[in-house]
Every structure is written in C-alpha cells, then in structure tokens.
Amino acid sequence: MQPVLEIYAPDGFDLWPIAAIEPFSFLPLSGDLSPAEVGTAVMRIAGCNDIDPDGDRPPRPADALSSFLHGLLTFECLFAAGGLRVTDSSTGVTFAPGCCDGLDDWRDWHQFVDDGTLLGFGHEPVSPVAERTGDTIRLTVNAEQSDSPLIELSDTELRQLLAGAERDLADFLELAADWASEHLPAHCAPVTAALARLLDLPVPAIPQAP
What we know:
Number of strands: 8
Strand order of the largest sheet: 2-1-3-4
Mean pLDDT: 92
Strand content: 15-25%
Number of helices: 5
Oligomer: single chain
Low-confidence stretches: none
C-alpha cells in the first residue's frame, strides 16, 4: 500500500524545480523522494487548490509565487488528487485510486476497517470498491466489470498496510518541511502546516534557517 498523488504538471511551471514525471501517472509519497520529486508533489497539491478566491477568502496576491500558493494556504478543506494504491505483488493486480478519491481522504480506510461499510472510489466507467466479509477484505479494481481483477487480504494485513502508509506520509511530510525551508523560506511554516492539515498528521518541526 502506497500513498500516491496523481501528477499533472502545467506547461512552463518555473516557480521551483520539479521532476520530469509522466502526466496523469501516480507519484508514491515517502521519505525516499528526491528534492525535485518533493517539489513535484508540493506543486501538484498546491495546484489542486489553486482556485480563484470567493467572498470568504482574502484576495489573491499579485506576485506569482504567493498567488499559486494562495489556495493551499487559505482553503479550510484542502484536496489532493490521488489516494492509497494497493498492489498484490504475487499477481500484479493493482487497486488504484479512482476519480472520486483524494489523498486527503486516506483516513476513510481506517473507518472502513473498523465498521466494514462499503467504500467506493469512483463511478462509471471505472469504479474501484473496497468491501468486507467477516475478516476478509476484498478490493475490486472495477465493480462495473463482473470479471474484474481483485485483491483479497485479511483485516490484520490491511491494518498493517495502513500503518505503513501512515509512516510513508509522515516521512514525506518531514521531507517537505526540509524542502520548503530551502525552496520556500518565506512560506515554509504555513506551507508545512497546510500539508500537515491536508494529510491529517501532526506538523513536523520546522527546520531553523541557517
């Protein structure tokens, strides 16, 4: 299980260095990312929330950097395209986030494990679904297909995978704080706090400026 972001880089993005990643692919988040990959992740998360302010938020700043970060720093409810991706290494079957999924909703998996309520991540033509029968968790890649590939695992296995995904997110958040201290020094604290709020994790220590 990996927390992933669906990546889309706008043409000509030059506010900070980003990695060359195929558009609409998934970038796994962990503590192993390069600085350019962290920059790509922050770019994508900020881009998901780069929406013109309405009457409830302050006006967009004039300078390009503050303008691009404005939604990330002012929205109460943040969104990031992606989610948790599960791959069965024995069969190669991959359960990927759907169109209605968001990385900000990753804790919904914990509620699913606890109460067994059907968890859907998309709609036609691709509808990933997680469901539980007793101690067995079934992840159906596309519920629209009667012969859809699926992954089966136990309640215990899923809880262990979720714990690993949370560690990956926490490690990424620490990397992002270090990255922001170098690339966004004037915005480091609020950007780090916003990312922590998005991921529903404690804010890591902000690196001290040299």
